[in-house]
Amino acid sequence: MRKSIVSAAAVGLLLAGAGIGTASAAVSTDLASYNKFDGNLAQSVGSGPTASGVGSPIFVTGMFGSAVSLDNGTVKDAAATQWVDLGAFDVSATRTALTVSAWVNFANAPNVNDFKAIVGNTDISDSGDGTSRSFRLSSGSSIGSNLQWDITSSPTTFNSPSGSTAQDGVATVGVWKLVTATFIGGAGNSTNAGSATIYADGILGGTVPLDFVAYVDNSVKLLIGAEPTTATTARRGVTGLIDDVGIWSRALSAQEVAIINGLGRFVGLVLDSGGIDAVLAAYNATGSASSGVRTWSYKTGLTGPVGTTGGSIAGGDAYIVLGAGNGVQIVIPEPASLALLSISGLLLLPRRRKA
């Protein structure tokens, strides 16, 4: 699938048109860590951690460009043999908000309590039993082959609850699935003002209220594709493909998650392209944003929960639900409109990977 980029000028104009300043929260610029896995493990934005591959993972055709391929077998709780190590990386000093998102293509169906870690962290001092786990996004939950999001409070500071779990539908085998999880810290006063939430393919899967303010310090070890047990070993490894892993120190909105999924599937937009922010700004302004010859416009009369997608690019009716009965839908602009968009710099141009 091709990838696309949008110029900074285009994003600025669209955000301004929506009444949103460029200093506001944006998916593309708020990334704390981003691994595209386009033939290498390097960070794609900012000053995130330096990743290293353990067990010689390989690169294969991915959701976008290439993806990392891991083979950790199917045995429950077995030692992992392949993963990507992000090292000692603390997403946020305050640890009061978080989002983890990844495209995953599972090679086999997980079983109950497998907890195959898509992204996982464990404080090494807990001897791998998970009692001081910071967070883990996994497949094979406590009730079946569901996706699961676990996040744990700091027991030395906050009392209840000690951790929260959100679950979603079955981890489908052999297809690309966008798995996204968010955390918003509570007030620590029994009001359950916080939340742990999980999305699958852009649609809300489950959310639980929580009290604790911050999650456990995750600066010891953070892995993609497994969960650490010591400084050099891991368990509960994924077998399959992982692509486009993003981590933010804030909780993305349901609309942002929905657009990441929809634009990723329909037109190949990736996290740092800026197009996600541009289309969301256009939606908020009940306006339009263009991607090449394709324009996404505010649309009413759509059905389904936020994140629902339908139609197709070929049919000229692809859409993404972003609100109660509304969202964005693709339209084909008139030639005159296309010329104006080109002049104003609002076209999202395809980015072709080097051979």
What does this 3D model show about the protein?
The protein has about 350 residues and is mostly beta strands. It has four helices and 24 strands. A hairpin with a 2-residue loop joins β9 (about 135-140) and β10 (about 145-150). α1 runs parallel beside α3 and α2 crosses α3 (about 275-285). Mean pLDDT is about 80; it is low at about 1-25, about 125-130, about 155-160 and about 340-355.
Would you count the extended β strands for me?
24
Helix content range: 10-25%
Count the helices. How many? 4
- How does the major sheet shape up? 8 strands, antiparallel
Distance between the termini: 14 Å
In summary, what is this structure?
By secondary structure, the chain is mainly beta.
Helices and strands in order:
Layout: E1 3-5, H1 8-17, E2 31-35, E3 52-54, E4 58-61, E5 66-70, E6 83-85, E7 97-106, E8 116-121, E9 135-141, E10 144-152, E11 163-170, E12 177-184, E13 194-200, E14 203-210, E15 222-224, E16 227-228, E17 234-235, E18 240-248, H2 254-267, H3 275-284, E19 288-291, E20 294-300, E21 309-310, E22 319-321, E23 326-331, H4 335-344, E24 349-351
Antiparallel strand pairs: 1-24, 2-18, 3-6, 4-5, 5-18, 6-15, 7-12, 7-18, 8-9, 8-15, 9-10, 10-11, 12-13, 13-14, 16-17, 19-20, 20-23, 21-22, 22-23
Name its key features.
24 strands; 355 residues; 4 helices; 7-stranded antiparallel β-sheet; mainly beta; single chain; 8-stranded antiparallel β-sheet
